[in-house]
């Protein structure tokens, strides 16, 4: 089964009490009310920790320059870390992690610590740290613009994108998404998407968790494409195959996935100046599965080598 992963904000040794991962950037814009191609990047509390405002990409975590750290380089262990709060209760009560079992703690921003559990109770677990390390932020970075699906397909899309390795997930209120963007529904949707990504990040044993941005408009998506190292728009009527594209060695791959009804002509026109549409294959996938298939195809030619 592998080593279970749990979120712990203080793995890097910085005082991020309460699990607040704050003060960062997304796509070069300050987060927490800042812009992702013009869209605000705010944060909802996830799993008891506000995984928002955290730098996506090239930032230092807990005062250490994670962006320049050696990939997978394990440091000297020592000391103990107490995993309390919602994560600790989940480990002890739901997962029933016991003394002697080995677990990994991560801050979700590249730093990790691993070791056996030496104490366990209803309030959480204590880990004797034997190894520590940091991992470089993934590059090229995969940014998936996902048109808002209906019902359970939204959860499926977010979970699969997180598991396959998407670094940023941008919910898109496309013309055919049929999403009523009132404040209450927007907040509820973002809270769900961030919780799904958070849990999927742990399940897939990621050291860098995927970020979910605020819901973007078509104009904001167009600006993301304009700033991408590789802009990709999937469309079933395109003639250029996705397989013909060569991913960049650095920068952002921005991948746009349309809704069930397809990308509207006006939206294609808005994207046309920076991104010619491409087709995924001979069959038409649903919006909840097209993104993970496309991301996997591009990752197999870049980071997965």
List the helices and strands and how they pair.
Layout: E1 4-7, E2 25-26, E3 29-30, E4 35-36, E5 39-40, E6 45-46, E7 49-50, E8 73-76, E9 80-83, H1 85-94, E10 102-106, E11 111-121, E12 124-128, E13 131-134, E14 141-147, H2 152-164, E15 168-172, H3 183-203, E16 211-212, H4 218-226, E17 230-234, E18 252-257, H5 265-271, E19 277-278, H6 287-299
Task: Please explain how this structure is put together.
By secondary structure, the protein is an alpha/beta fold. Helices cover 24% and strands 25% of the residues. It is built from six helices and 19 strands. The chain has helices spanning 85-94, 152-164, 183-203, 218-226, 265-271, 287-299, and strands at 4-7, 25-26, 29-30, 35-36, 39-40, 45-46, 49-50, 73-76, 80-83, 102-106, 111-121, 124-128, 131-134, 141-147, 168-172, 211-212, 230-234, 252-257, 277-278. Strands 1, 8, 9, 10, 11, 12 and 13 form a seven-stranded mixed beta sheet that branches. A six-stranded parallel beta sheet has the order 16-15-14-18-17-19, sandwiched between helices. Helix 2 crosses helix 3 (183-203). The model is unreliable at 14-75 (pLDDT under 50).
Percent range for helical residues?
A: 10-25%
The N- and C-terminal alpha carbons lie at a distance of 24 Å
Instruction: State the secondary-structure class.
Output: alpha/beta
Mean pLDDT reading: 81
Task: Provide the gyration radius in Å.
Answer: 19 Å
Order of helices and strands: EEEEEEEEEHEEEEEHEHEHEEHEH
User: Which strand-content bin applies to the residues?
Assistant: 15-25%
Report low-confidence residues grouped into runs of 5 or more: 14-75
* Beta strand count: 19
> What overall form do the CA principal axes indicate?
elongated
Discrete helix count: 6
Sheet of most strands: 7 strands, mixed
């Amino acid at each position: 089964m592998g080593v279970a992963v749990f979120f712990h904000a203080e793995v890097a040794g910085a005082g991020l009490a309460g699990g607040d991962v704050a003060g960062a950037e997304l796509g070069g814009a300050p987060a927490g009310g800042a812009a992702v191609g013009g869209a605000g990047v705010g944060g909802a509390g996830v799993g008891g920790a506000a995984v928002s405002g955290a730098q996506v990409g090239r930032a230092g975590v807990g005062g250490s320059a994670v962006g320049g750290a050696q990939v997978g380089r394990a440091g000297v262990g020592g000391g103990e870390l107490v995993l309390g709060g919602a994560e600790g209760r989940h480990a002890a009560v739901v997962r029933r992690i016991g003394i002697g079992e080995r677990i990994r703690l991560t801050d979700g921003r590249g730093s990790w610590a691993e070791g056996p559990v030496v104490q366990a109770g209803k309030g959480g677990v204590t880990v004797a740290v034997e190894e520590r390390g940091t991992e470089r932020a993934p590059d090229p970075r995969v940014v998936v613009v996902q048109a808002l699906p209906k019902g359970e397909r939204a959860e499926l899309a977010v979970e699969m994108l997180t598991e396959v390795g998407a670094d940023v997930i941008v919910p898109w209120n496309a013309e055919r998404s049929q999403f009523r963007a009132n404040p209450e529904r927007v907040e509820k949707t973002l809270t769900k998407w961030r919780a799904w990504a958070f849990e999927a990040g742990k399940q897939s044993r990621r050291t860098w968790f995927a970020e979910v941005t605020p819901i973007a408009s078509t104009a904001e998506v167009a600006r993301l494409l304009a700033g991408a190292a590789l802009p990709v728009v999937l469309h079933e009527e395109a003639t250029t195959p996705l397989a013909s594209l060569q991913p960049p060695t650095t920068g952002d791959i921005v991948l746009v996935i349309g809704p069930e009804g397809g990308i509207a002509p006006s939206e294609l026109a808005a994207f046309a100046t920076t991104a010619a549409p491409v087709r995924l294959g001979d069959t038409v996938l649903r919006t909840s599965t097209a993104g993970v298939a496309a991301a996997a195809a591009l990752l197999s030619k870049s980071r997965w080598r």
